[in-house]
Design brief:
The protein is of the alpha+beta class. Helix content is about 40%, strand content about 10%. The model is unreliable at about 5-50 (pLDDT under 50).
């Protein structure tokens, strides 16, 4: 399972403080407790007869396919309204609604619905130092990371692209000091790492040819110690992404990946 296309696993950036989520959760809990304790005020909410509409539709993937064939500023400018309607705004709604189920997994990751500097990656490519001057990404990507942490803050990543949709979690090309902390945690917490390592499935993860300096060559997890990238991913079909149940599907995927995110976070001294 490839963890990304187009260097998909990118920087996790700043978001809303976990304390604010905690405060909202406490307020909601107290409000429900106060209302439900009054027999005249509380009534069970009626079930809706209409299913929730999907966040994303096949139009998203058709648009991204067309953008791939017409990756230039004139074309995108003439289709900017279409991008807003079927890609940008649905993604913002998804991020907004994902805040609650994400909090149930961990209160320390952030779903930030701001259009800029939030959870949604910009559609514009940074071409300053790249020989590839195509101006736009041909996928939609979202990150759910620790507040104020950089690229090496383990969290969740969602990637939507024609023929390549997945959620992922892990560390991609971390700095040497970050990798040293993770390797030390693997050696020092073998019993905890043993079941978690089964989640590793990035088939394009790079690794050393020899064990890293300072670590035993005969260690039980020597192959894991050689890894320079550690991560897990769960693929989705386009039909799943376009289903009204995709919020649940994505939440379940993140919950399955959370043991690895928790281990990596604790190795780096982060709460999860």
């Amino acid at each position: 399972m490839s963890h990304a296309s187009n260097n998909g696993f990118e920087a996790f950036r700043r978001g809303e403080t976990p304390d604010s989520f905690a405060g909202k959760a406490f307020f909601r809990t107290e409000a429900v407790r106060n209302i439900t304790s009054h027999p005249l005020l509380f009534r069970a909410a009626p079930r809706t007869l209409f299913p929730m509409p999907p966040y994303f539709t096949p139009d998203l993937f058709r648009f991204l396919s067309r953008l791939k064939r017409n990756n230039n500023r004139d074309w995108f400018k003439s289709h900017k309204d279409e991008y807003e309607a079927i890609a940008h705004q649905p993604a913002i709604r998804f991020i907004t609604d994902f805040g609650a189920p994400l909090y149930e997994i961990t209160p320390y990751l952030v779903a930030d619905p701001r259009s800029t500097r939030g959870s949604l990656f910009r559609i514009y490519r940074d071409t300053r130092f790249s020989p590839d001057k195509r101006p736009y990404k041909t996928h939609l990507a979202m990150r759910f990371s620790h507040r104020g942490k950089d690229v090496h803050s383990p969290g969740f990543y969602l990637h939507l692209e024609p023929g390549g949709c997945f959620a992922a979690s892990g560390l991609w090309h971390p700095e040497p000091h970050t990798l040293l902390k993770v390797r030390s945690a693997i050696v020092g917490r073998c019993d905890e790492w043993r079941p978690i390592r089964k989640l590793l499935n990035w088939d394009d993860a790079t690794k050393l040819s020899r064990p890293p300096r300072g670590f035993p060559c005969d260690h039980e997890f020597v192959e894991d110690l050689k890894l320079r990238d550690l991560g897990t991913a769960i693929e989705f079909t386009e039909a799943q992404v376009c289903s009204p149940k995709f919020m649940t599907t994505c939440t379940n995927a993140c919950r399955k990946m959370s043991p690895l995110a928790r281990f990596l976070s604790s190795a780096l001294g982060l709460q999860f």
